Amino acid sequence: MDSHVLLTVGILSAIGFCSCQNEFLLNGPLNGAVGGSVEFTLINPPSALPDGITWRFREMPIFTSIEEAVLPNVVYDGRTIVNKSTASLKLRDLSQDDTGQYTVEITISGVVSRGITSLTVFERISGAAITITGGHPIVGERVNLTCDAQGSIITREWRKDGNPLHGDNIDELNRTVSISPVKKEDKGYYTCQVSNLVSSETASKRLNVKCECLFWTVPSYYTCIKLG
Question: Per the CB 3.0–4.6 Å rule, which of 57, 91, 180, 188 could disulfide with 142?
Fold first, then answer.
């Protein structure tokens, strides 16, 4: 084969001479909430009206149009809206099963171009609460403050009296603060913000620290030793 032909083939191979290499740029990666919606848009939309548009989820077609004909996937009936001028896709009524890779293939004058993006769907955070376990908040004892919530939890951030709370007494998941031994200065207002990429919620709890009791006289009454 002529050396010039070989050189030309090599150059075309190097720059990806294929009509379906990722020539369109899609927004994303996107994040969505269960029950919500997202819109996949092209950062560089087609310069001419597409002859055909195909959107896929994990290689499964979810919408196809060929000129005037539209072939939607019945599984997605009522959940997709496609703008046939810009090729954007709006996906509604999200579930966590919609998490994954999305591709679009656009045909203009017989040339097929492709774009890829991804979506992660989270459950919204709800019901955040702090519970106190492990004992009574008495000086010298041990207590645990545990922060939990419903939903897809990514981060938990603790504060005490408005100040960030850090240290070895917080477990690696930031779920539980262990106080041992309890000191007078541990009393205060504790908050925990639970978050993911689409929602957050803050729980609060006041820790009232008591001194150690010498004896009980009547219910709910006690005498305390002198603290230093």
Answer: 180
What residues make up the domain containing 200? 126-212
Whether 184 is covered by a domain: the verdict is yes
Joined together, the tokens standing for residue 30 give 């996107």
Q: How far apart are CA 221 and CA 152, in angstroms?
A: 44
Q: What are residue 174's phi and psi, to 5 degrees?
A: 60, 25
Digit-coded pLDDT (tens) for 2-36: 333 233 233 223 333 333 444 889 999 999 999 99
Q: What is the CATH number of the domain that holds 191?
A: 2.60.40.10
Q: Quick check: 112 pLDDT over 80?
A: yes
Same domain, 148 and 81: no
**How far is 136 from 207, CA to CA, in rounded Å?**
10
More confident residue, 3 or 59: 59
Domains held by the chain: number: 2
